[in-house]
Design a protein that fits this description.
The complex is a heterodimer. Chain A has helices at residues 24-32, 65-70, 84-95, 108-111, 116-119, 147-153, 156-159, 174-197, 207-212, 218-225, 264-273, 290-294, 296-311, 315-324, 335-339, 342-346, 388-394, 399-407; strands at residues 14-17, 36-41, 75-78, 99-102, 127-132, 201-206, 241-246, 249-254, 329-331, 350-354, 360-364, 369-370. Helices cover 37% and strands 14% of the residues of chain A. Chain A is elongated and about 85 Å long. Chain A has 2 domains: 14-214 and 348-407, Rossmann fold, CATH 3.40.50.10540; 241-334, formyl-coa transferase, domain 3 (2-Layer Sandwich). Chain A is built from 18 helices and 12 strands. By secondary structure, chain B is of the alpha/beta class. Chain B contains 18 helices and 12 strands. The chains are: A alpha/beta, B alpha/beta. Chains A and B meet through helix 2, helix 6, helix 7, helix 8 and strand 6 of A and helix 2, helix 6, helix 7, helix 8 and strand 6 of B. Strand 6 (201-206) of chain A pairs antiparallel with strand 12 (361-363) of chain B.
Chain lengths: 411, 406
């Protein structure tokens, strides 16, 4: 094996992250594979700094936990983009950049003279990625949205929640996560083209459409079978498929697997080995048929036999034993369970930075292991404007110009 | 049509089911030549997953499979035969990326583990997407998006605080966190390979990317010392923030007041009487404190309203709001998705004209086109044998007869 290249797969790429909740994670992905990412913040700080929860529940621009997670490994430049001098500095920075990530409403950047066409005049290889709720074009392009609204309009919200209640959102801002993630892929595709041809482009990412990608097969059910998929929470949706309570919480069992009922015999063998009463009722070809396993009486029968067994075991025990028998069952984990996972500890998954009050802030680390160009945490999220002078000096600004920018309130 | 970003990149694609196939779809839709290596004996389970064209089950009729496999070609090879494994190695030798999402060790059994592939093709980017990664006490565990979603916390964090967790209602990790992180890592590794001539091994557990999009929840636990709970439809700061019933069967509207200035606008559109809205609700903190009362008032005001009309009025007043669209809304009625060309209809040899997702982003300089519908099982066996393996028709006929190309 050759020595891993510590500079990272994206070494040499210069990224300006002008975004907030819709783009900060995208920027983080670039930073931790080796790109130089500068977070360009308005004077009050990037929007995520004002999002709860906060460390110790005390609001403050250096205390937002979403901010602290999504902006590790970046540098911070405080720059007023509504000031002509600030706009000029950004144009100079963009002239040497590979990627700009921005999430303003469509047209806002262009109105400041900072749209993709303007920024790429002096830098044709520049990629500008705009991540917005509905994209740059179309009748809803200027509509107002939040994470919840994007989940609703993308159709994923309708699938969440309980059969007997309202739709319920996916936790932890998953519409924005989707926009960030597809934004990162789209940016890399455009950068791949730019490195090959010298030609950059404007990338238009719609959060709504990113959410639509998560509908699984709901769109195809509508198209092919004329059936509208509905929410299934709180209900065993197929015999042996769904959430089941156990001694200390819940497990998710998918006895059949996907397509057919491959793992059903394993489940029966497992329960048999545990001398579960009435397990023989689970034998027979009928348990492999969609109509049979979807029928209410058979779902009830499953619960009658399985629940007493599950109630006598913890989620960790059920997970361990089910996997021994090759049955797709997992615990319904809480974050504290996941922090204790022996598997993740073995893989050194969690990383630690200094928290705002001095203690350790432990957070998820590498989402992927690259053998030659490992993911690398370069440091905690920056304080507001922490690298302003450093970045301006690299740009070639004299001490005098920096002082002028400061006096004018631009930085 | 201009050159696509991944024109000239070839992918030997051993992935199946959800996350793996969705990863390579993104690459195929942007120009990569993705060769899906399949087996007739052990068919990709998703080919047998509903929905099916006209509700009739068949290996070439699943919409679930089809949407994950646009722009790819399919060859069937029986990897249990020595000749089959040799053919696979030759495809690998001619590829830039080799992708799989089997449990660890499966590819090595076929002589296609990373150590084998590096010998054959040191430039190859090798993507392995097992459930738990290729090391550790749980390396051999198995799971699907739904069970993995439970394992990694998203299931627990989605639902009402006083009920059993509800989850997202989907195999969530398969569709967004896993394929996106994987595609990003592959594209980064391809850049490294172009610059250095060296491939590498990407070990992507199907757990770790989803945990990575829940980062703030873990900081809640480690910095604030408490397990975050599901919030229902609430937000930690904004109020009102929720889903409210409208007129009609299972119709709902999502509303989020993200700024104090929007509160009077919402009140006006809903016609909330002044006497039921205390003046202190002008501030976010007071609204958030009283959010349950507020939710009740709003629900009463929306109950007889038409969701689409209310959506239009709220948006006109600048209030973030959206209809909770079901699949029929999204596919057939949403004028915005139509205007953006999100849905593409392609003619499939057995399914006829069927629906596919275009990418959720537009590369304005190198726009993607879905070059073909999902392949039939083994549809391109002959053409791949000619083009990539240099076999003649007689040889192909022999390999078919002997069950190697099956």
């Amino acid at each position: 094996m050759t020595q891993p290249d510590a500079a990272g797969a994206l070494a040499g790429l210069r990224v300006l992250d002008l975004s907030g909740p819709l783009g900060n994670y995208c920027g983080k992905l670039f930073a931790e594979l080796g790109a130089d990412v500068v977070l360009v913040e308005p004077s009050g700080g990037t929007a995520l700094r004002h999002q709860p929860p906060f460390a110790g529940d005390r609001p403050g621009p250096e205390r937002s936990l979403p901010y602290l997670y999504n902006n590790t490994s970046k540098r911070s430049l405080r720059l007023d983009l509504d000031h002509p001098e600030g706009q000029q500095v950004l144009r100079e920075l963009a002239a040497g950049a590979d990627l700009v990530i921005e999430t303003d409403s469509p047209g806002r950047m262009a109105a400041r003279g900072l749209g993709h066409e303007q920024l790429s005049e002096d830098n044709p290889r520049l990629v500008t990625t705009s991540i917005t709720p509905f994209g740059q074009t179309g009748p809803y392009a200027h509509h107002e949205a939040s994470d919840l609204v994007c989940l609703a309009m993308g159709g994923l919200l309708y699938l969440g929640g309980y059969v007997d209640g309202p739709p319920v959102q996916a936790g932890q801002q998953q519409a924005y996560a989707a926009g960030n993630l597809f934004g990162a892929v789209a940016s890399m595709l455009a950068l791949t083209a730019a490195e090959a041809t010298g030609q950059g482009q404007h990338v238009d990412v719609s959060v709504q459409e990113s959410v639509v990608m998560g509908l699984e097969n709901a769109a195809q059910f509508q198209d092919l079978e004329g059936r509208v998929r509905r929410r299934t929470g709180g209900r065993q949706w197929r015999a042996g498929a769904g959430v089941f309570p156990c001694a200390d919480g819940y497990v998710y069992l998918l006895a059949g697997g996907i397509g057919g009922n491959r793992f059903w015999p394993n489940l029966v063998a497992w329960l048999d080995s545990e001398a579960v009463p009435r397990v023989d009722e689970f034998r027979g070809e009928q348990w492999g048929e969609r109509e049979f396993v979807e029928a209410e009486e058979n779902r009830d029968l499953f619960a009658e036999i399985f629940l007493p067994f599950a109630a006598s075991r913890t989620k960790a025990e059920l997970y361990r034993d089910a996997q021994k028998w090759r049955v797709p069952l997992c615990p319904v984990s809480k974050p504290s369970d996941i922090l204790e996972s022996a598997q993740l500890r073995h893989r050194d998954y969690f990383v630690s930075v200094e928290g705002p009050d001095g203690g350790a802030a432990v957070m998820p680390g590498a989402p992927y292991a690259l053998s030659e160009t490992p993911w690398r945490l370069k440091g905690r999220a920056p304080r507001l404007g922490e690298h302003t002078v450093e970045v301006l000096h690299e740009l070639g600004c004299s001490a005098e110009r920096v002082a002028e920018l400061r006096t004018a309130g631009v930085i | 049509m201009g050159r696509l970003p991944l024109s000239g990149v070839r992918i030997a694609d051993f992935t199946w089911v959800g996350a793996g196939s969705y990863t390579t779809k993104m690459l195929a839709d942007h120009g990569a030549d993705v060769i899906k290596i399949e087996s007739s004996a052990k068919v990709d389970g998703i080919r047998l997953s509903a929905p099916f064209k006209d509700g009739v089950k068949g290996i070439n009729r699943s919409g679930y499979f089809a949407d994950r496999n646009t722009s790819k070609r399919s060859i069937t090879i029986d990897l249990r035969t020595a000749e089959g494994r040799e053919l696979a190695r030759r495809i690998v030798a001619a590829s830039d990326v080799v992708a799989n999402n089997f449990t660890p060790g499966t590819m090595a059994k076929f002589g296609l583990g990373y150590d084998d592939v590096r010998e054959i093709n040191p430039r190859a980017v090798y993507l392995a997407m097992s459930m738990s990664g290729d090391s550790g006490p749980e390396r051999d565990f198995l799971g699907y998006g739904l069970t993995i979603g439970a394992l990694v916390g998203i299931h627990h964090l989605s639902g009402l605080p006083d009920r059993e967790p509800a989850g997202t209602g989907t195999n969530y990790p398969d569709h967004i966190p896993n394929p996106c992180h994987s595609a990003f890592a592959v594209l980064a590794a391809l850049r490294h390979a172009r610059r250095t001539g060296r491939g590498q091994y990407l070990d992507i557990a199907q757990t770790e990317p989803t945990i990575a999009v829940l980062g703030a929840a873990f900081l809640e636990a480690t910095v604030n010392g408490r397990d975050p709970q599901p919030l229902g439809n609430a937000h930690l700061r904004y109020a009102p923030h929720g889903v409210y019933r409208c007129a009609g069967e299972d119709r709902w509207i999502a509303i989020a007041v993200t700024d104090d200035r929007l509160w009077p606008a919402l009140r006006a559109v809903l016609g909330l009487p002044e006497e039921s809205c205390p003046a202190e609700w002008a501030t976010e903190a007071a609204r958030h404190r009283d959010r349950e009362v507020l939710d009740g008032l709003i629900a009463a005001a929306t109950a007889d309203r038409d969701a689409d009309d209310l959506f239009t009025r709220l948006q006109a007043a600048g209030v973030p709001a959206g209809v909770v669209q079901d699949a029929a809304d999204v596919v057939e009625r949403d004028p915005h998705l139509r205007a953006r060309g999100h849905w593409v209809r392609l003619e499939h040899p057995e399914m006829g004209e069927t629906l596919y997702n275009a990418p959720p982003f537009q590369l304005t300089g190198t726009p993607a086109t879905l070059t073909r519908p999902a392949p039939m099982l083994g549809q391109h066996t002959r053409e791949i044998c000619h083009e990539v393996l240099g076999l003649d028709d007689a040889e192909i006929a022999r390999l078919r007869a002997e069950g190697v190309l099956a």
